[in-house]
Structure formats: C-alpha cells, structure tokens
Amino acid sequence: RSASSPSSASPPKTPSSSVPVYSVRKDGVDTPHAADELAESLKSKVNFAGLKDSNAVTVQYASARSSRADDPPVVHGRMFDAERIGYLPRPKSRGMMTGNRFRIVVRTEEVLADRVEAAYLACAEKRIPNFFGYQRFGLRGMVNHRVGQAILARDFRAAVRIFLGEPREGEGPEAREARRLAGEERFREAHELLSPRQDIERKITARLAEKPDDYLGAIRRIPIIPRRLFVQAFQSYIFNRTASEAIREGLDFSRAEKGDNWTTLTPEMLRSTKTHGVKETIVGDAVPLIQIVGYGFRNYGSRFDVLMMAILKELGVEPPRFYIKEAEELSNEGGFRHAPLLARDLAHESGPGSTTLSFSLGKGEYATTLLREVLKPEDPLRSGF
C-alpha cells in the first residue's frame, strides 16, 4: 500500500492552538502499536485517520491531540518513521479521510490479466458486495466476532476464554502452551510463557492472575481501539452474512431500488453523502445501504432488513443488547454501510512471475475484498491474506 510522498521541508510552527501532523510510514506493525510509540515521542496521544494492519508497508497520516505536544521534525520508531508535514487547527479524525490507495504485488506464475479485468469490471459496475475483509475477524484464529458475541451475551468469562484459550495458526509451541494454560484458567503460568509481542494477552492474564474472577476488568485492560473491535467484528459478521444471503437471493447491489435505504456518492465516487429513508424518492445514480446492526437498529422493511432480521433471529441476538450497560464504552449504535464496493483508479500490469494491482477504495473498505474476487483463495492465510 502506498501514498504520495510528503515534502521534506519542515513548515514553520503556526498558532499555538494548532497540532502537528505527521506522515507515518510503517512496516510490520499495526496502527495502535505505532500510535502508542509515536505518542511517547510527542508527549501527547495521537489520532490516526483509520486503522491499518501490520502485514503491509503503509503510509498514513497522524496528528497529536494536544496543541502542547512536542513536534520533532522526524520520529524514528522501531518499525515506523514519521515526518512532520504541517499543522492543523484540530486533530485529524477518521471523518477527514476520503479513502486509501493500494499497490499490491501478487507473486504467481499464473496469468491473471483476464481475472483482474473481470474483477475490475464487476467493481466498476458496482457488482461486488462491500464485505468486511478477513482481517476484521482475526484471520489466524477467527475469534474476534465470537468474542464480541460473548460480550453481547454479558458472558465476559467466555469472551476471555475464547480470546486467550483458542490456538492461532502459525504460533509456536510456547504460545500454544500459554493458550492451553489460559484455557484452564492457570493465568499466572500462561502469563510467563507469553511473548512481549502478545501484549494484549499479557495485559489480560496479568489482571486475572491478580484477580481471577474479574473478567470484565481483564477485558478493560485491552486498549480501547482493539477492545471495541470485538463488538464491531460481530457487527461485521452479521453484515457479511446479510450480504451473502443477498447474493444467494440474486439481489442487485449496483443500484438502489424502491424500499431501500439509499445514498448518493460524492464527486470522487468513494464516499457517500446523506442517508435517505426507505420512503424517500430515489434520485440520481443512488446506491443501496445495508444496516450495521446496533442498539439503534430499526427494521425498515427493506430487502436487506428482511434478510438481516432472519439472521438475528437465528443467532438469538436482539439489537438493544448492543447497549452494554456493564461496559458502556463497548456499546455501539450501529449505522449504515453502502452495499457495493466503491473503487476507482483501477490499473494493473504483469511482469515475470508477478502481477501488480493498483486501485483506490473508499474509507472503511477492504482491499482483500477485491483481491478475493481475483484470486479466489482456497486458503486465505497461506495466500497472503
């Protein structure tokens, strides 16, 4: 993944109410961990306009939250470099981001040109559903959404046991043994075997070694962004199930139909405008919206709502449960997500043993969703997903 390179010039400091902004190039570290380390250097918490996982070279933009932050021209982290590129009157937020540009190299002797063209055409015609990607669910163990489901059931012990005790593909023998011990609730012994890179697991086991029955307290030792991800992953699971059922039913994602919640797109075609109700007259080149279930969910009777209601009934989930009185910071109101994947700047080129794909996606969309349409991986993890 790449972005345009920032200027190397160091701009002058602007009024004292402004905050420094950095271009952050990272490799091998996820956004929350890079944010923690950058915050130490700036002596201020920082905001990134979106999350990126560790399995990519990424360029992101971050700002300090405080106008009293330090603002060194360059920060060299363990797995990132940050260069100050200017100042803003307020911290960066996710709402400032239009989308992401991607450059992905697929290393294979297979000729992919026809498959890439077919996927790109489907994307341009808005026929690819806007699935949440594999990484949303914790690809190595696919536990995130199940942890979230346990949290919604207020079974915090089960949530901890799922997160700590279930093995992950690719982990070494010490990590597997640590998870076995954690599954037996031998938390102190498990803690001693966990590596420093397993910092979230170490926070949980440290708390439970100290207070063995404080499962909610242990969950609250997880930093807020990954802590919220569990419930969000369960929402994403329900969204993906709904989109999959819509495909089976042969529903058209490419344009809004009467009875849908819908939206129009901004000029760059990567963002939606306002959300329109099911009774509003559809205008222009509108796209349909699927709800993200939360405590604010309402069954408007749309073709997607009907499918989602059946899934919620199957799972035994009632939308009010997304308001979590015991841990209000994990509550989620829900919202809407456009049904088709939005993309532009679609390009590709082939060389000896590889195909390079370039494209831009809207905020919150996943490159792996488009790549899956090209590669159709039988084993996503071993295919590099």
Biggest sheet details: 5 strands, antiparallel
Order of helices and strands: EHEEEEEHHHHHHHHEEHEEEH
> Hey, roughly how much beta strand do the residues contain?
15-25%
Portion in helices: 25-40%
Distance between the termini: 14 Å
Alpha carbon gyration radius: 22 Å
Which parts are unreliable, with pLDDT below 50 for 5 consecutive residues or more? 1-11
Number of helices: 11
Strand arrangement across the biggest beta sheet? 2-3-1-5-4
The residue-averaged pLDDT reads 91
Class by alpha and beta content:
alpha+beta
Number of strands: 11
Bulk shape:
globular
Explain what you see:
The two termini are 14 Å apart. Helix 5 runs antiparallel to helix 6. A 5-stranded antiparallel sheet has the order 2-3-1-5-4. The chain contains 11 helices and 11 strands. The protein is globular and about 60 Å long. By secondary structure, the chain is of the alpha+beta class. Helices cover 32% and strands 19% of the residues.
Tell me the layout of helices and strands.
Elements: E1 19-27, H1 31-42, E2 46-48, E3 57-64, E4 74-76, E5 80-88, E6 99-107, H2 113-124, H3 144-152, H4 156-165, H5 173-183, H6 187-193, H7 199-210, H8 215-219, H9 224-248, E7 261-263, E8 287-292, H10 303-315, E9 335-338, E10 343-351, E11 354-362, H11 367-375
Antiparallel strand pairs: 1-3, 1-5, 2-3, 4-5, 6-11, 7-8, 8-9, 10-11
